[in-house]
Amino acid sequence: MKVRRILLHIGLIITILISIFFSALIWFNPAMLQHDSKETTNTGENNTSVSKKTLSDVFLPLQVTYNEDNLQYQIPSSKDYLIGKVWKVMKKWDSSSVSMKKYKNETDYLTFLKQNNMLLLNYNSPITVKIFNKVFLQKIKGIENFKFNRIMIPVSNGKYLYLLNDQTKEVCTVTLSKMKVTKIQTYLKSKDVDNVKVEVDYYPLNNKIINFYVGSVQFPKYSYLYNKTNISSYVSELLNPSGQTSISTKLQKNKTIYLDGSDNRLTLNDTTSAIQYENYAALDYFDEANSGKVKTQKLDYYTHLKESLEELNIIGTTPDNLRFDEINAEDGTVTYRSYIAGFPIISDDNYGSYQIKIMSTGGKEYNLSLNSLQVPVPSSQYKQSLPSTYTVLRELENKGYSTNKIKDIRVAYKWQKNQSSSLVVDLIPTYYVYLDGHWSELDTLLTGN
């Protein structure tokens, strides 16, 4: 009996040690996951969320800044961190009345923007009060079409809320009842916030106010397993949702083109896995009573954003961390990006992004990628050091780039293949510059590649 008990204990210990050994291999060497993950990838299975996105899922603010002691700080935050906590507090407030003010010059507006004890929730492109009402459960009336890109919250007292438009220098003052800021004060005093905040300056650049990092900054690198969706799922969803359409395929250099014989076209870049869906049908806007001419639709800003979200839901396989990022004023393209720890992923090959273009004649165009992030994998506590934004602007000027043409500068994550595993991607923080109508990585601009 004693021998049997001893053997049982020894067997149990061996089992535990084997379990610990293999767990350690997985956690400390992501390449060990390559075999199993590769099988999953090749089947085209996609584990991203297939639930429909709501306004509250994608139209939360993207960035947090805090004014304190005559200084401004950026607080890196994700949807589930500070932004999400403040959002839950704000949903309990009740708006009662509003008033509008327009500042005559940039200096006065910046003075208002830099007031002490103010928490600012920021967007890259404006949203409307109508969207704000739905996301934050408010009932502001009379100015539903007012566009703004900042929400300012006084954290020293609870009475007013401000909605700011940097471009027009307009401020909407919202009088609130049941406004309590004690929880927000507690969040801002926590060590988690104090340890990550970075000093910034609100810098006016070509009719836009940008957060410029005052000194050099460090941001962490992340690593993720990624998945490649089978193109057949998009072909069936976008070209043949009823299952009754005949799909033709043709090859063109490094591209595969899928056609349904009518107005739908899906193009896959076989090298980068970027896909483009085009539908130039205008059936909903065909005017039989007016000589068969095609009508054009004039969507207001709110409807344009709302319809872009509806189109996004048609795609059907979007990640949980997807957020409304920006809208192109020239062609109306709405871009949704994946956000990691409060910063977007930017890529020329559409990794982590979905671009939705709704045309005035009723046609539409999607740009996205088959590649998507799955689960984070352990990586070294590596941090990327970046220079101050002022230094970046000087470097660009020294390389001959006109400041008048630089529309925006921001830190974002670059999608980079991991050197040790083909199924892991590294997300590297770097500067991106909006120049000549698109985002370019800083190193590309400085080296001329």
UniProtKB/TrEMBL annotation:
Keywords: Membrane, Transmembrane, Transmembrane helix. Gene3D superfamilies: 3.10.450.310. The keyword NAD does not apply. The chain crosses the membrane at residues 7-28. InterPro entries: YycH. Residues 12-443 form the Regulatory protein YycH domain. This is YycH family protein. It comes from Liquorilactobacillus cacaonum DSM 21116. The lineage of its organism: Bacteria, Bacillati, Bacillota, Bacilli, Lactobacillales.
